[in-house]
Design goal:
heterodimer, A: about 260 residues, alpha/beta, TIM Barrel, two-stranded antiparallel sheet, about 30% helix, globular, B: about 110 residues, Udp-n-acetylmuramoylalanyl-d-glutamate--2,6- Diaminopimelate Ligase, Chain: A, domain 1, five-stranded mixed sheet, 5 helices, about 15% strand
Chain lengths: ~260, ~110
């Protein structure tokens, strides 16, 4: 088994709410410098910076996973992570087809949405509003993305907004999630298990949900013991099967 | 006022088959955040929401609400209807907005006792 430090929820400057310093090149470089060896790029309903991140990953030797944070019909944020760009591209098409026409993004109000290449060069500005719900229910987001091979988890379930738990009151077993994410504000939940009665036996994970470099580096990560970085191995680790391990609540700053 | 009495007045469509329409409505609650409803709604209330997810039925059943009105023409999951029948929960559908429905219920005298 090999050990990896994994962060499965990071935004680039394509997400309107993220800082422009969050270029794929910069994120991956900082990941490499800080020993973050598994990284998923997860912009809101979009994937325009993933190819650049994959290229940067090869450059700096970081295992980058193509991903997306999707907003379901119930206004719950669900993160989907794939092994390959082709799987994510197929998923992007399903998400795009399920989105209603929204007014164009107001960059002054919500922030700009920028696509860049792997060397920080500006490519284009995404004019469509990326925030907002698609017309797929949470159950559909989970089943359709899993069909394409995704690892799926409910984002920041402890937060008051855009949380699957908040929107639905409890998380039923029929939703085939791989995990639920506890946000950086509530890492104590890993010990107190206050939310347990509402989510059943789903494993916890902790990610930075970084929208700027400082939050990305300082935010919680996960320590994994797996054979190789893949969706299948991560799933085994979350289940604690076949000797794989997944330990949430890992902070780089505390472990140096 | 009983559940059966509001049906013609609001032109609600009953999508379920097993709920008791002769139960008395004791006030109401309007919210789409199920976690919030679980903490705030009380037994006998009628619940107005845009969520069509089947967890709505579980919450309504748990709190012993008198009925649920799903507004805005929201598509109601088949599983929601199946679970509602299983748990004898009444679920109505309407194209009216939550604002409109809540206002009309209030006008009919369905108000919360402080």
């Amino acid at each position: 088994m090999k050990r990896f430090i994994g962060d499965f929820h990071v935004h680039t400057l394509l997400s309107p709410c993220a800082e422009v310093e969050m270029t794929p090149n910069h994120i991956v470089l900082r990941a490499a410098q800080n020993g973050i060896s598994i990284l998923a790029i997860t912009d809101h309903n979009a994937s325009g910076n993933v190819l650049a991140a994959l290229e940067a990953g090869r450059k700096y030797g970081v295992n980058v996973f193509p991903g997306m944070e999707v907003e379901s019909l119930e206004e719950a944020h669900i993160v989907t992570i794939f092994n390959t760009w082709e799987q994510l591209a197929a998923w992007q098409k399903i998400v795009d087809d399920s989105r209603r026409d929204l007014p164009p993004n107001n960059a002054k109000k919500f922030g700009g949405q920028f696509v860049v290449d792997a060397y920080d060069n500006f490519v284009c500005e995404e004019k469509k509003m990326l925030l907002g719900a698609c017309q797929l229910t949470a159950a559909e987001v989970i089943s359709k993305s899993r069909y394409l091979g995704a690892l799926v988890f409910a984002a920041h379930i402890d937060r008051p907004s855009y949380s699957l738990l908040g929107q639905l009151g409890f998380i039923g077993e029929e939703l085939a999630l791989d995990a639920v994410e506890i946000s950086r504000c509530n890492v104590s939940e890993l010990k107190t298990n206050k939310l347990r009665p509402l989510i059943g036996s789903l494993p916890y994970m902790t990610n930075s949900d970084g929208h700027n470099i400082s939050d990305f580096i300082q935010g919680p990560k996960n320590l994994l013991e797996i054979k190789e970085p893949s969706v299948e191995e991560i799933r085994l680790a979350l289940k604690g099967e076949k000797g794989r391990k997944f330990r949430p609540g890992y902070f780089i700053s505390l472990n140096r | 006022m009983k559940v059966s009495e509001i049906v013609p007045r609001l032109r609600l469509v009953n999508v379920t088959h097993k709920g008791n329409l002769e139960v008395e409505i004791k006030g109401g609650y309007t919210s789409d955040l199920l976690s919030n409803v679980m903490g705030q709604a009380k037994a006998g209330m009628i619940w107005v929401t845009m969520q069509g997810h089947h967890n709505v039925v579980a919450v309504a059943s748990l709190l012993e609400l008198s009925a649920v009105i799903i507004t805005g023409g929201t598509k109601i999951e088949e599983e929601t209807i199946a679970k509602a029948d299983e748990n004898e929960v009444t679920v109505f559908s309407t194209t009216m907005s939550s604002y409109e429905v809540t206002g009309r219920l209030y006008a009919l005298g369905i108000i919360n006792q402080q």
